[in-house]
Amino acid sequence: MDFGKLEDISGVNFSLPTDHPFMSKALNSFEASTPKSNLCFVGPPIWSNKEWVGKIYPTTAKEKDFLYHYTRQFNTIELNVTHYQIPSEATIQRWREAASPGFRFCPKWPQEISHERQLRGCEALSHAFTNSVLGLGEHLGTTFLQLAPYFDSRQLRTLEAFLKQLPPGFPIAVEFRHPDWFSNPSVWQETLLMLHQMGVGTVMSDVAGRRDVLHMSLTTPTVVLRFVGNELHPTDFTRVNAWANRLKNWYLQGLQTAYIFVHCGENINAPELTKYWIEQLNQQCDFALSPPRIQPKAVQGTLF
Fold first, then answer.
1. pLDDT tens across 14-62, in order?
2. What are the Cα distances from residue 187, in Å, to 78, 89, 166, 179, 193?
3. What is the largest CA-CA distance in the chain?
4. How far is CA 214 from CA 179, 211, 278, in A?
5. Buried-most residue among 21, 141, 208, 300 (CB within 10 A)?
6. What are phi and psi of 229, to 5 degrees?
7. How many angstroms separate the CA atoms of 165 and 143, rounded?
8. How far apart are CA 194 and CA 84, in angstroms?
9. How buried is residue 35: exposed, middle or buried, by Cβ count under 10 Å (0-12/13-18/19+)?
10. CA angle at residue 145 from 127 to 28, to 5 degrees?
11. pTM to 2 decimals?
């Protein structure tokens, strides 16, 4: 994830902002009507990484089997491949068959809808995408709509019209990137209220170079967090500690489900950072999530 990445993070204040006032309203409104579940899903953003063979995948693993092995190490994935192509029925079936029980896919909306057409005139494409991913059945988590960086707050009504044409109850969270959404508190408040009334969630990103997108605003009892680490820098771990504590408080307030996607540079070290996330969540939130089993990679000896 290149968005918001910095080469030098020495001057970044990684402290978590205070919760947006809208959050307590959103969580309280759902707490009484929604059975308490406290679900948590944590995973890296990819499954196809040859560097993981012999590390979290068997040494004999073939690329075609990477997804099968991934779903037995983690319980969710940020499904970026759907950003570039709507998956066919055969592909959806293949993903379902590879998934372990309880695993959740979180597909990203196609860029043709979000970036190229900017949510206009794409009803047929939206119908094709929703029909496709609903085929995941019990393995569908939430979808997330990443708005284009040039899609600003003046287009709020366009976003509202787009969301209204989706199937009732379709799981979706929106990721805002243009700074205008956050620079005007009244506009952001209006946006949150609209999403809350429609049962649509928000996406937060914790990344060094764009602290405004860490808006700490929930509109549903589900949080979607994209956490961008810095190659196991010491701050990665202190940030995770703070997040686990904040999530503990949110669950106590009525949070039902968390989807946490752990980015880490080229993602070679993403399993280690995800493992730390899971260990801290288990410790602070009293979960029993299974951490990935990481094996030290064998290093071929040098011949003398």
1. 999 999 999 988 888 775 555 567 899 999 999 999 999 999 999 999 9
2. 28, 40, 23, 12, 10
3. 70
4. 11, 5, 21
5. 141
6. -85, 175
7. 15
8. 28
9. exposed
10. 110
11. 0.95
